[in-house]
C-alpha cells in the first residue's frame, strides 16, 4: 500500500518540533527578545500562501474575492517580514562586548 | 519550475530558518543568523513566484503590495523605541494571525487555486487543516490585539474577570471544534465564517483576564499560537517551508512560556486562567501596622556606592517605564572610574517580555558580558557591598523563600537582602504586581530612595 503524502508532511512537522525544541533551549536568555522578533519574522513565510491566493485564477480578473484576501495577507505579511527582520537586526547591533 | 524542485528549495529555506534560530545561541553569531533568516525568506518568496509562473497584471500588484507593506514595516522597525518592544512584538503577532486567517479564507473560497479540490467539495484533510489554521490564526489575532492594548496602556493592565468566564471560554472552544466537525460534513460557508467569528471572540476572552505583569507569558504563548497557525496553513498548502517554520515558532513560543512560568513558580494554567492581581487580598490587614523604614537621598546613595568594592544592579519594569537605562549606564560608568566592580542581575520575568531588560541595557551600551541571569549571579549577592534595585519589586521579595502562605512562595527570587546594603529606588511603599508587601523595605540594611527611577539615578550621577 502506498503511503499518504500527508504522513510525510506530518513527519517533517514532528521532527521540526524536536529540532525547534533543542535549538531554542540553546538560545541564550539575554537574546530572548530578538528570538521573539525573529520567530515573528520567519513565521511570515505564510506570505507564500498569500501570494498563491493573490495570483489564483485567471489573469484577466485580478481582484476576485479570493484574490483580495490574498493581497491583504501579502501586505500584513510584508509588514512583518521587513519589520521583524529589521528590528531584530537593530537589536542585535546593540549587543556588544566589553571594550578591553 | 517543477513542483519537486520548488519543494527542495522550500526545504532549503526551512533549514535556513533553523540556522537563524541557532545563531541566537550567542550574540556573536546572532547577526549572521539573522542574515540566514532573511535569505531563507527571499528564497521562499522567489520560488513561489517562479513556480506559479504568473507574471501578468496580478504579479505587478503583488509587487506593489509587497513594497507598501515592506515600507511600513521598515518604517516601524527604525522608528520604534526599544522600550516599546513588547507591544511591537504583540502587534506583529496579530498581523501573522490575521494573515493566516486571510489565506485560509482565500483557500476556502477558491480551493482550485491551491489544488485542494473544488468549492463545495474540498478534500477532508485540507478542510480540517485550513479551519484549524483559521481558528488559531483568529485567536492569535484578537488575543494579540488585546495584549497590545494592555501593553500600550490604552487598556488597563488590570485583569478583567467576571463570573462564568472560564465556562464561557470552554463552551466557545467546544463550539469551534463542533463547528469544524459540521464543516467537514456540510462544507457550508456559513459554518466556516462562524468558526472564524467565534475564534476572534475566544481570543479576546482568553487574554482579557490576564494581568499586566503576566504579559511575558501571554506574548510567548501568542508567539507559539502564531507558529501553530502557520503550520496549519502549511499543511493546507502542502508547503514544507511553512510546516518547518510553524513547528519551530510553535515550539519556541511554548518553551519561552514555560521558562516564564517557571520564573514565577506558577503553572501555565494558573497564569492563563487569570492572575494574581485579581485574587482577593487577605494579607492586607497584617501589613496595615506601620513598620519603620529607613529612607535616604541621592547623596547617601552616592556615598555608599562610591565606597563599595562591588555593586550589583537589579533592574525591573520600573526602569523601562522611567526610561532610566541611559542614566543608569552613566552612573555605572562613574562608579567604574572609582574602581567599583559593577554587574547586573536579571530575573527571568523582569519586564514585560522575555529578555526585555537585556535589550534595554544593550540599548544603553551596557556590554552583555556584565549582565547575568538569576542562577549565574544569585550567589554573588552575599559578597557584594551594595545592591541597587531599580524598578524591580516582587522578584526581590524574600517572602518567597520564607512564608509558605504567600502567593509568591516558591518563586525563584534574587537574594538581594544578602548584600551588605540594599538601595531600593521606588516611588512609594506600595506593593508590586503580586499585591503583597515587600519585606525588604523594612530590613535594617535597606535604604529606600523614594523617587522616580530616572530622576534618582541622575541625581546620584551628579553627586558622584
Mean pLDDT of chain B: 88
Approximate shape of chain B: elongated
What is the C-alpha radius of gyration of chain A, as a whole number of Å?
Answer: 19 Å
Give the helices and strands of chain A as they follow along the chain. Answer: HHHH
Number of strands of chain B: 8
Helical percent range of chain A? Answer: over 70%
Order of helices and strands of chain B: HHHHHEEHHHHHHHEHHEHEHEHEEH
Strand content of chain B: 5-15%
Shape of chain A: flat
Give the biggest sheet of chain B: 6 strands, parallel
The tally of beta strands of chain A, per DSSP, is: 0
- How many DSSP helices of chain B? 18
What does this structure look like?
The complex is a heterodimer of chains A (100) and B (464). Chain A has 100 residues and is mainly α. Chain A is built from 4 helices and no strands. The N and C termini of chain A lie far apart (66 Å). Chain B has helices at 3-23, 27-52, 57-79, 85-109, 111-114, 124-152, 165-186, 189-207, 215-237, 240-263, 268-272, 298-306, 317-322, 325-337, 356-363, 374-377, 399-402, 453-463, and strands spanning 117-118, 121-122, 310-315, 341-346, 371-373, 386-390, 421-426, 446-450. Chain B has a 6-stranded parallel β-sheet. The model of chain B is unreliable at 277-288 (pLDDT under 50).
Amino acid at each position: 500500500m502506498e503511503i499518504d503524502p500527508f504522513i510525510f508532511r506530518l513527519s517533517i512537522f514532528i521532527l521540526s518540533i524536536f529540532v525547534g525544541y533543542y535549538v531554542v533551549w540553546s538560545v541564550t536568555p539575554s537574546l530572548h527578545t530578538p528570538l521573539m522578533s525573529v520567530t515573528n519574522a520567519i513565521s511570515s513565510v505564510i506570505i507564500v500562501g498569500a501570494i498563491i491566493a493573490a495570483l489564483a485564477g485567471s489573469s484577466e480578473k485580478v481582484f476576485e474575492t479570493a484574490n483580495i484576501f490574498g493581497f491583504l495577507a501579502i501586505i500584513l505579511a510584508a509588514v512583518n517580514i521587513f519589520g521583524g527582520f529589521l528590528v531584530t537586526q537593530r537589536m542585535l547591533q546593540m549587543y556588544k562586548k566589553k571594550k578591553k | 519550475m517543477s513542483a519537486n524542485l520548488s519543494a527542495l528549495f522550500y526545504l532549503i529555506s526551512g533549514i535556513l530558518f533553523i540556522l537563524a534560530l541557532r545563531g541566537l545561541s550567542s550574540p556573536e553569531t546572532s547577526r549572521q543568523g539573522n542574515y540566514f533568516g532573511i535569505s531563507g525568506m527571499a528564497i521562499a518568496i522567489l520560488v513561489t513566484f517562479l513556480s506559479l509562473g504568473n507574471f501578468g497584471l496580478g504579479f505587478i500588484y503583488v509587487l506593489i503590495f509587497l513594497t507598501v507593506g515592506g515600507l511600513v514595516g521598515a518604517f516601524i522597525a527604525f522608528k520604534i523605541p526599544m522600550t516599546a518592544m513588547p507591544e511591537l512584538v504583540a502587534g506583529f503577532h496579530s498581523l501573522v494571525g490575521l494573515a493566516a486567517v486571510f489565506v485560509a479564507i482565500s483557500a476556502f473560497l477558491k480551493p482550485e487555486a491551491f489544488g485542494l479540490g473544488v468549492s463545495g467539495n474540498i478534500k477532508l484533510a485540507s478542510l480540517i487543516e485550513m479551519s484549524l489554521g483559521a481558528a488559531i490564526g483568529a485567536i492569535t489575532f484578537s488575543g494579540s490585539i488585546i495584549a497590545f492594548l494592555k501593553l500600550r496602556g490604552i487598556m488597563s493592565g488590570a485583569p478583567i474577570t467576571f463570573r462564568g468566564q472560564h465556562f464561557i471560554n470552554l463552551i466557545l472552544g467546544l463550539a469551534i471544534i463542533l463547528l469544524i466537525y459540521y464543516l467537514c460534513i456540510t462544507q457550508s460557508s456559513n459554518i466556516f465564517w462562524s468558526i472564524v467569528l467565534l475564534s476572534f471572540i475566544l481570543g479576546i476572552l482568553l487574554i482579557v483576564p490576564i494581568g499586566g505583569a503576566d504579559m511575558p507569558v501571554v506574548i510567548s504563548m501568542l508567539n507559539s499560537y502564531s507558529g501553530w497557525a502557520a503550520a496549519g496553513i502549511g499543511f493546507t498548502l502542502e508547503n514544507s517551508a511553512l510546516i518547518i517554520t510553524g513547528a519551530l515558532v510553535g515550539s519556541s513560543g511554548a518553551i519561552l512560556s514555560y521558562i516564564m512560568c517557571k520564573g514565577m513558580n506558577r503553572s501555565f494554567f494558573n497564569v492563563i486562567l487569570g492572575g494574581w492581581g485579581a485574587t482577593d487580598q487577605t494579607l492586607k490587614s497584617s501589613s496595615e501596622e506601620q513598620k519603620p523604614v529607613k529612607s535616604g537621598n541621592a547623596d547617601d546613595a552616592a556615598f555608599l556606592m562610591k565606597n563599595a568594592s562591588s555593586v550589583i544592579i537589579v533592574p525591573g519594569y520600573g526602569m523601562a517605564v522611567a526610561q532610566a537605562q541611559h542614566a543608569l549606564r552613566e552612573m555605572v560608568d562613574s562608579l567604574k572610574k572609582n574602581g567599583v566592580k559593577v554587574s547586573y542581575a536579571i530575573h527571568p520575568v523582569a519586564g514585560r517580555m522575555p529578555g526585555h531588560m537585556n535589550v534595554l541595557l544593550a540599548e544603553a551600551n551596557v556590554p552583555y558580558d556584565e549582565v547575568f541571569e538569576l542562577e549565574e549571579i544569585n550567589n554573588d549577592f552575599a559578597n557584594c557591598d551594595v545592591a541597587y534595585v531599580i524598578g524591580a519589586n516582587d522578584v526581590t521579595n524574600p517572602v518567597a523563600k520564607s512564608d509558605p502562605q504567600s502567593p509568591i512562595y516558591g518563586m525563584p527570587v534574587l537574594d538581594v537582602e544578602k548584600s551588605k546594603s540594599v538601595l531600593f529606588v521606588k516611588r512609594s511603599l506600595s506593593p508590586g504586581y503580586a499585591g503583597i508587601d515587600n519585606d525588604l523595605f523594612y530590613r535594617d540594611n535597606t535604604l529606600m530612595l523614594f523617587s522616580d527611577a530616572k530622576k534618582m539615578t541622575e541625581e546620584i550621577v551628579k553627586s558622584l
